[in-house]
Amino acid sequence: MPKVVDAARVTAQANTVWRTCTGCSLLKPLADGVERCPACQTPAPQTVTEAGWDLAGRYATLVGRIEAWAHLIPNVSDTERLDHIRQALATLDPQPRNKGVK
Question: Between 48-67 and 78-91, two packed helices, what is the crossing angle to 10 degrees?
């Protein structure tokens, strides 16, 4: 007796197999070597709140690194402290404003 799944496989391309998408955990026709469906492959745009929390988290991490080199790490020369603080400041790349935010 034919099943609904058999009818769906007839309409799919020859090299696709119905597998569970690793992104959304739904059963979808995926080609060989593909783990995610097209909807899960495109990243979702961040909301303003998510982008703000991401930026705040990055700044908090930077402040923690600076504080560690300024006060908490013993037996280090002032020159070495300043070099590490400058390096920490240089690694912070500001996120472009309003890009990918809805």
Answer: 170
Q: Are 16 and 30 in contact (CB under 8 A)?
A: yes
Of 66, 65, 55, 64, give the one whose Cα is nearest residue 98: 55
- In degrees and rounded to multiples of 5, residue 38 shows phi and psi of -60, -35
Domain ranges of the chain: 4-41, 48-91
Q: How high does pLDDT run on average in the chain?
A: 78
Stated pTM of the model: 0.44
pLDDT digits (tens, 9 = 90+) for 60-100: 999 998 999 888 888 989 999 999 999 888 887 655 555 55
Distances (CA, A) of 58 to 1, 4, 62, 89: 58, 50, 6, 11
Which spans in the chain are helix H?
4-11, 38-41, 48-67, 78-91
Distance from chain centroid for Cα 39: 16
For residues 44 and 51, give the distance between their C-alpha atoms in angstroms, rounded to a whole number: 12
